[in-house]
């Protein structure tokens, strides 16, 4: 098990969840150290198989999953649902909580030394393992991510604002560096994988066309575009300086509901964004008012400042033509 991680300003974390958050921080600190070693830690980005969803698993995906699972077993986590495991695992039968995790998000970036992350969501456990996760996302009691970037940081909410704790690599401590993050509504930036343009629905194409038209189009302002292909990095940029993110459903087989998973990607990011004053929808309806029908179910995902996210919805209300 990872050596305990000290969290400075831990009084901002509910007492019952502190051992869980502390374990998450300890493992994240160890994952950050491995990532910082890059090729010196071995072939972290090498393909080692496929998860049950058909995604290729990288060595670091599997390593991170094993590290989190081993450490959380010693806490109050009863049920553990991971992107890398087909079924829910029972860790501590006497535990009170259910934790869903994307142990390593943005794994196509491992080999190119670009930011990746870990995303997690916590519910109070109920007796049925799957039912602990297949419920309204608004019932989450905690949601967050760790970004492994030039700096490593934990961004977390317990339903009372979105906080950032930054890892001091020298002391190994996570220190509160932002008490209440707010999503700014003044940044003209959008994030979408534009290579899928031909597969998008007409409303999504129309929205992006109008952004691209800049001052010569109906929006009457110029936009900038960013795409890291790491949801955590994208969420961190939007929480830090604004902009809107879209991963819509598209016409590719298997992408009817986009690419991102409800339980351990979209629900916790939506919780963070709402708690920072922003909005997160499936293009239309709030993510937090929805629940997944299956553990690995996908959902279209749009988030950012309310005004930008609402504008995306108005395009979806337009007739297809
Ligand atoms: O390669 P695409 O289609 O642009 O998708 C990028 C998206 O896929 C993801 O990498 C999926 O997450 P995993 O790496 O955990 O599978 C997101 O982080 C990112 O937003
Ligand atoms: Mg992911
Ligand atoms: Mg992943």
Q: If you had to describe this structure to a student in words, what would you say it looks like?
A:
The chain has 321 residues and is α+β, with helices and mostly antiparallel strands. The chain folds into 2 domains: 7-178, Fructose-1,6-Bisphosphatase, Chain A, domain 1 (2-Layer Sandwich), CATH 3.30.540.10; 189-317, D-Maltodextrin-Binding Protein, domain 2, CATH 3.40.190. It has helices at 18-37, 59-72, 202-212, 231-241, 262-275, 306-317; strands at 7-8, 47-50, 56-58, 77-82, 89-90, 97-105, 116-124, 142-148, 152-157, 162-168, 173-178, 189-191, 224-225, 244-247, 279-281, 301-304. The chain starts with 6 loop residues before the first strand and ends with a helix. The mean pLDDT is 95. The structure holds 1,6-di-O-phosphono-beta-D-fructofuranose (FBP) and magnesium ion (MG) (2 copies). One magnesium ion binds at residues 61, 83, 102, 104-105, 107. One magnesium ion is lined by residues 61, 83, 102, 104-105, 107. Pathway: Carbohydrate biosynthesis; Calvin cycle. One of its GO terms (biological process) is sucrose biosynthetic process.
What would you say about this model in short?
GO terms for molecular function: fructose 1,6-bisphosphate 1-phosphatase activity; magnesium ion binding. This protein is 26% helix and 24% strand.
